[in-house]
From TrEMBL:
Residues 141-282 form the N-acetyltransferase domain. It comes from the Bacteria. This is GNAT family N-acetyltransferase. InterPro entries: Acyl_CoA_acyltransferase (IPR016181), Bact_Acetyltransf (IPR050832), DUF4081 (IPR025289), GNAT_dom (IPR000182), UCP21603_acetyltransf (IPR016794). The lineage of its organism: Bacteria, Bacillati, Actinomycetota, Actinomycetes, Propionibacteriales.
Length: 282
């Protein structure tokens, strides 16, 4: 039975899924992570590995906050951020990352920073980009969906990308088994794309989260000894073309503002900026 809340913050559950998805649909490309999590877990804490909180005003759900390994604000304004922040202060830090639209992340940091301490890394300027039409350049014909037999070549490339991007190995602290399972899952879903040459990956990217209308791409990587050849632009053109055909019609991602080669590649493909994200990593 649904819990009735007139105003304030409470954890959401299965009875709230429809209302929560209506909230994420206000900005579906920005909120694809939250919508994907709601669709795949039905907001059950056991499946979420955490909770999703809702902020209610006069009985209406006006904002959300995913509280798991990732802390992600959803359609949260200043008052919502303050309410979520106060609840988070009472709880203490259990998350490893705060990520989302820049104003909301800044607001959370203003509330939580003194208590939670400095993050390991702060990435305040991350353009959020969307491509929802045909690529502007010719796709790389050698980029294809990965197959189970590709795992031996794909997995080391995934570890290399993760380590280069985040500064720590996904295998650290006994995480290899879980990360291997995740890579296999993406292959099984048809969400892993790569160009393979002589048994190794020279370009790759994955769909991380998806809804019927939007797919978020992560893990874009070019083998270091093949950078500067245009593989990223042509490869991403192929990913956009294939993802729009097989997963969802709109493709999004966010990129560090200082990564000029990646930003140039995405612009060539036809990605345009729609928002700015920030990420704080602990």
């Amino acid at each position: 039975m649904r819990t009735t809340t007139r105003s304030g913050v409470r954890p959401l559950g299965a009875a709230d899924v429809a209302e929560f998805l209506a909230l994420t649909d206000r900005n579906p490309t920005v909120n694809v992570f939250a919508a994907h999590r709601a669709r795949t877990t039905r907001l059950e804490p056991r499946l979420l590995g955490g909770e999703v909180w809702g902020q209610f005003v006069d009985g209406d759900l006006v904002a959300g906050c995913h509280v798991g390994a990732n802390l992600v604000p959803i359609e949260a304004g200043e008052d919502d951020i303050e309410a979520f922040g106060e609840r988070l202060l009472r709880r203490g830090r259990t998350v490893s990352t705060i990520v989302g639209p820049q104003p909301a992340v800044r607001g959370l940091w203003d509330v939580l920073g003194d208590s939670w301490g400095p993050p390991r890394e702060s990435r305040w300027e991350q353009p959020h980009l969307v491509a929802d039409g045909q690529p502007l350049i010719e796709p790389d014909p050698l980029v294809r969906a990965s197959r189970p037999e590709d795992f031996g070549a794909l997995y080391p490339a995934c570890v290399a990308m993760y380590t280069e991007e985040l500064g720590v190995s996904p295998e650290l602290g006994g995480g290899a088994e879980g990360y291997r399972a995740r890579v296999r899952q993406l292959v099984q879903l048809g969400w892993s794309f790569a160009r393979y040459e002589r048994g190794r990956v020279v370009f790759k990217a994955e769909v991380a989260f998806a809804t019927p209308t939007n797919a978020q791409v992560q893990g874009v990587w070019v083998n270091p000894d093949r950078r500067g050849e245009g593989l990223a632009a042509a490869g991403m053109a192929a990913v956009v073309e294939q993802v729009r055909r097989t997963v969802a019609p709109s493709v999004s991602l966010y990129v560090n503002d200082w990564n000029q080669p990646a930003r140039r590649a995405y612009a060539k493909v036809g990605f345009r900026q729609t928002d700015t994200f920030s990420t704080l990593m602990y």
